[in-house]
Design goal:
This protein is of the alpha+beta class and 235 residues long. Helices cover 14% and strands 35% of the residues. It has five helices and 18 strands. The longest helix is centred in the C-terminal third of the chain and has 11 residues, at 181-191. The structure holds manganese (II) ion.
Length: 235
C-alpha cells in the first residue's frame, strides 16, 4: 500500500439531525445574489442568471460554536442561506430531475469579508479572500429531505430569518429566491459535474450587515432547523 508523505486531513463532514452519523462533504458551492431584494441592496439588478463561487470544505463550522473574528476585515457580514446536500451527482441535471439529487438540506451562514469582496471585485480580481476563509461556513445539522413534511420536500417555500443579538435582520421566504433549488442545481451542473457530498449554499435574502466580536448570530429556516454562532475576539 502506498502511504502519504504527510498525515492526510480528516474528511470534512456535516452533522445530521437526529443521528450520530455524518454527511461527508466534498466541495462547497455558493450562489451569488439569489434574492431580488438582496441583489438590489448590493447595487445590482435582479435579472441575471445565477453565478457561483466556492468555499473550502474545511470552512464548515458546527452550530453552537464561537468563531474568532477573522483577519483582514473590518466589515464581517452574515448571510443566512438554505444549504443543499447533494446525495447523487450528475452533469447537465434537468430542473425536473434536480430534487431527486438532493439528500438533505440545512441552515447555513455564508460569512463574508465584505470589504475584501468589494475591493477585489472592483479590481476585477477573484472573490476568494472575501468568501473562502477559515470558519466562513457555519452549518446546522442537515435534515434528509425525505424526512420533511411532503409539502416542504421541494424546498420551495418556508420562512428564512436571521437575528443579531436577538434583533431580526433578515426575514424572507424561500419562495423569494430568484432561482429555486431545481434551477440552481441545473445551472451548477452545467458548469461542473456535481458529486455526492457537494454542498450548495443557495444565496441570502436582503438585510445583510456587519457583526463584531461579542455578537450572537442566530437564524433558521422553517421545517429545516436553527443555527447559532457567537463571534469571538480576533484569533
Ligand atoms: Mn451568500
Amino acid at each position: 500500500m502506498t502511504g502519504y508523505v504527510i498525515t492526510p486531513n480528516p474528511q470534512a463532514s456535516a452533522a445530521v439531525a437526529g443521528t450520530d452519523e455524518r454527511f461527508p462533504v466534498r466541495r462547497i458551492f455558493c450562489v451569488g445574489r439569489n434574492y431580488a431584494a438582496h441583489a438590489r441592496e448590493m447595487g445590482f439588478s435582479d435579472k441575471e442568471p445565477p453565478f457561483f463561487f466556492t468555499k473550502p470544505a474545511d470552512a464548515l463550522v458546527e452550530t453552537g460554536s464561537t468563531i474568532p473574528y477573522p483577519p483582514i476585515t473590518e466589515n464581517l457580514h452574515y448571510e443566512i442561506e438554505l444549504v443543499l446536500a447533494i446525495g447523487t451527482g450528475g452533469a447537465n441535471i434537468t430542473p425536473e430531475d434536480a430534487v431527486s439529487h438532493i439528500w438533505g438540506a440545512g441552515v447555513g451562514i455564508d460569512f463574508t469579508r465584505r470589504d475584501q469582496q468589494i475591493a477585489h471585485r472592483e479590481k476585477g480580481r477573484p472573490w476568494d479572500w472575501g468568501k473562502a476563509f477559515d470558519n466562513s461556513a457555519p452549518l446546522a445539522p442537515l435534515v434528509r429531505t425525505a424526512d420533511l413534511p411532503a409539502e416542504r420536500q421541494s424546498l420551495a417555500e418556508g420562512r428564512i430569518w436571521l437575528s443579531v443579538n436577538g434583533e431580526i435582520q433578515q426575514d424572507a421566504s424561500l419562495a423569494d429566491q430568484i432561482w429555486n433549488v431545481s434551477d440552481v442545481i441545473a445551472f451548477c451542473s452545467q458548469s461542473v459535474t456535481l458529486k455526492a457530498g457537494d454542498l450548495i449554499f443557495t444565496g441570502t435574502p436582503a438585510g445583510v450587515g456587519a457583526v463584531t466580536s461579542g455578537d450572537v448570530v442566530t437564524g433558521g429556516i422553517e421545517s429545516i432547523g436553527d443555527i447559532a454562532i457567537t463571534i469571538g475576539p480576533s484569533a
